[in-house]
Specification:
mainly alpha, globular
């Protein structure tokens, strides 16, 4: 299932940049991460919406998961958690998301 969710994983370059800046300035690193990850998701979800419209489907129907799937992520306190960002994008296309 990890491959199916690869669109949701922050890309390697973004993570490398985040780690490099995080050593110097956690706030700047967080801002860099959020902007980069939102840009990544804008591209992915923009494509999903276009494909759904072309195929006469709802965007969530094109995602590779079923009811009850779980996306896990662990971050230490004070670190940016990408699940919160991703959840907003998923909700926007009609996916019921519960964060715990």
């Amino acid at each position: 299932m990890a491959g199916a969710w690869s669109f949701a994983i922050p890309d390697a370059e973004l993570m490398q940049n985040y780690r490099a800046v995080q050593l110097k300035d956690q706030v700047q690193a967080k801002d860099l991460f959020v902007l980069g990850y939102e840009s990544q998701l804008d591209n992915v979800f923009g494509s999903i919406k276009i494909d759904a419209q072309r195929d006469n489907k709802q965007p969530h129907e094109l995602l590779p998961f079923t009811d009850g799937d779980t996306l896990l992520s662990w971050e230490r306190e004070g670190y940016t958690n990408y699940r919160n960002i991703l959840a907003n994008y998923l909700r926007d296309i009609g996916v019921d998301v519960i964060l715990k």
